[in-house]
Every structure is written in C-alpha cells, then in structure tokens.
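Morning. Coffee machine broken again, so started the prediction first thing and wrote up yesterday's gels while waiting. Chain of 119 residues, entered below exactly as on the submission form.
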Amino acid sequence: MPDTPVIDLQAIEVLRSLNPDDNGEFLKEIVGIFLEDTPQRIAELDDSLATADVAKFVRAAHSIKGSSANLGAMVLRGAAERLEHHSKQNGLSNTGPLIADLKLEYERAAKEIRAIVNS
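Came back before lunch.
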C-alpha cells in the first residue's frame, strides 16, 4: 500500500471536529489511549502466540484493527486485518511475518500521530 498515507488526516479532522473548542484535547486523549493500549494488544499477540491461544490472538488483532481505523492509521489497520483474517483461517501458523509487519506499522503510525498531535 505505498500510496496509502500512514495517517489519514481526514480521520484526524473528524476527531477534532467532535470537540472543536477544546484546543485539541479530545484528540490528544484519544491518541493517548491508542498509544497506551496498542502496545498492550501487541503484547497480547505475542503472549497468545506463545500459548497457542487463537481466540485471544484474534481478539487482540481485532482490537488493533478497530482502534487504528478510528485514528485513520489505515496501513496499520490493514496489517491488523490481515493478521486477524489469517489467524481465523489458518490458526497461528506462519504469523511471524505478519506480526513483524504489524509492529513496524504501529511504530510508523505512533511516530506520525505524535507529530500531528504535537504540531
């Protein structure tokens, strides 16, 4: 997805428009939750992979997919969706490259979203 931006700025503007007079505090709160929660969900992916807990793995991937979509992190959302779909269809085999991709995309999204919020 080379043409897909790391963060869809239209999604950010939608979040800003929900509380237009708060100087971006609502957006900062949502971003803070995303930056705190997503690493926990990624840790759940690793833990559930180690314990072969497919249901927990699928839930963690699904959670990342949803929170990413809310913030417009569409490349990360796509990585989470691929991981969720793969694990539903094939269990946890061969998920290593997909997890690595998701972790990379999270780092890219987190960096960009911090820059947007702090600008």
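The chain has five helices and no strands. Going to sketch it on the whiteboard this afternoon.
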